[in-house]
């Protein structure tokens, strides 16, 4: 099923259902957030259910079977190509601003003329993000608990599991969620707001090695790390952070910067993730609780003893205040450490 949202376009765009131009001043019809299928609002109900594949069953009769087993075909979407589009077969300009013509693969992003399509190899190489993509052919069965079982193909040595907090960064996480679904298999991209990280981690737990990218703040990262501990997956996965919003202390420490707000840079970010080195991260927690300890020596109940007890309390308070003042005002590490002791 397509996931529609209203949008406008800076150049002539055509409906993939009736093939007429999308007209309007501010809202030029609907667009699918995953496959970029375009439609008039009146045409959306007649749109074919050909959104980006997620599982082997969704590919259907287009699947390629040969002596090597099953292979991934191209998934073509007609028209609305970028102005600079070049045919992958003849290297000539393709697409048009006058009509809906020529084709683009939703996975490898290859573009071809209609006349050149039969000359292009049938198997899809999955494009520049192939190391991170789980192809739909790898999601072919469901386990006894109702979760998909993924088999990792040789081309996907370290697949990427993406968690996005759509509420992060003043809701800018929504556009990152859309962009990741366009670049990867939508089945490997999860919104933390809808169900948390458990479902995604269950999908990947059969892999010997996989990577996780958390798009959000420190709270989102901590949430995913806690779930990894519960499922005991810390030995088979590595976690990266794409900071959204403000704060993001962990992302700063790991070298990913304070914040990311440009979703057009995601292909380059995915390439950096594939080459990134790993660092060990210690996680710890502090538990506080209250206990009652009987005093070792009680003060005498005489007036003189009460005055003496009050004197000791006042002296202790003055000492604590002095040490705190040194910690807050001193610029020397040795003084701070000595006062803390």
Automatic annotation (TrEMBL):
Domain DAGKc per the UniProt entry, residue ranges: 155-290
CDD domains given in the database record: C1_DGKeta_rpt2
Pfam annotation, one family: C1_1
Keywords on record: Metal-binding, Zinc
Top-level taxon: Eukaryota
Domain Phorbol-ester/DAG-type: residue ranges: 1-51, 73-124
PROSITE patterns: DAGK, ZF_DAG_PE_1, ZF_DAG_PE_2
InterPro entries documented for this protein: ATP-NAD_kinase_N (IPR017438), C1-like_sf (IPR046349), C1_DGKeta_rpt2 (IPR047480), DGK (IPR037607), Diacylglycerol_kinase_cat_dom (IPR001206), NAD/diacylglycerol_kinase_sf (IPR016064), PKC_DAG/PE (IPR002219)
Protein name: Diacylglycerol kinase (ATP)
């Amino acid at each position: 099923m397509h996931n529609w949202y209203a949008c406008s376009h800076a150049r002539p765009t055509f409906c993939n259902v009736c093939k007429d131009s999308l007209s309007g001043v501010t809202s030029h019809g609907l667009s699918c957030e995953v496959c970029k299928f375009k439609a008039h609002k009146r045409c959306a109900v007649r749109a074919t259910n050909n959104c980006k594949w997620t599982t082997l069953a969704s590919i259907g009769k287009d699947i390629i079977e040969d002596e090597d087993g099953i292979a991934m075909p191209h998934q073509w979407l007609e028209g609305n190509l970028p102005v600079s589009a070049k045919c992958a077969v003849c290297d000539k300009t393709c697409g048009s601003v006058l009509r809906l013509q020529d084709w683009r693969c939703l996975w490898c992003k290859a573009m071809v003329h209609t006349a050149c399509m039969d000359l292009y190899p049938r198997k899809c190489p999955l494009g520049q993000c192939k190391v991170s993509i789980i192809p739909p052919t790898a999601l072919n069965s469901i386990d006894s608990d109702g979760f998909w079982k993924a088999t990792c193909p040789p081309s996907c040595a370290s697949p990427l599991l993406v968690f996005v907090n759509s509420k992060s960064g003043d809701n800018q996480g929504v556009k990152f969620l859309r962009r990741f679904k366009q670049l990867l298999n939508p089945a490997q991209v999860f919104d933390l707001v809808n169900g948390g990280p458990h479902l995604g981690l269950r999908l990947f737990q059969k892999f010997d090695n996989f990577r996780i990218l958390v798009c959000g703040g420190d709270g989102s990262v901590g949430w995913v790390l806690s779930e990894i501990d519960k499922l005991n997956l810390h030995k088979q996965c590595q976690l990266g952070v794409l900071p959204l919003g403000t704060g993001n202390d962990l992302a700063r420490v790991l070298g990913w910067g304070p914040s990311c707000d440009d979703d057009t840079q995601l292909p380059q970010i995915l390439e950096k993730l594939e080459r990134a080195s790993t660092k060990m991260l210690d996680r710890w927690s502090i538990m506080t609780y209250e206990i009652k300890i009987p005093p070792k020596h009680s003060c005498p109940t005489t007036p003189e003893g009460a005055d003496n007890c009050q004197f000791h309390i006042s002296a202790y308070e003055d000492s604590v205040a002095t040490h705190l003042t040194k910690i807050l005002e001193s610029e020397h590490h040795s003084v701070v450490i000595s006062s803390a002791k």
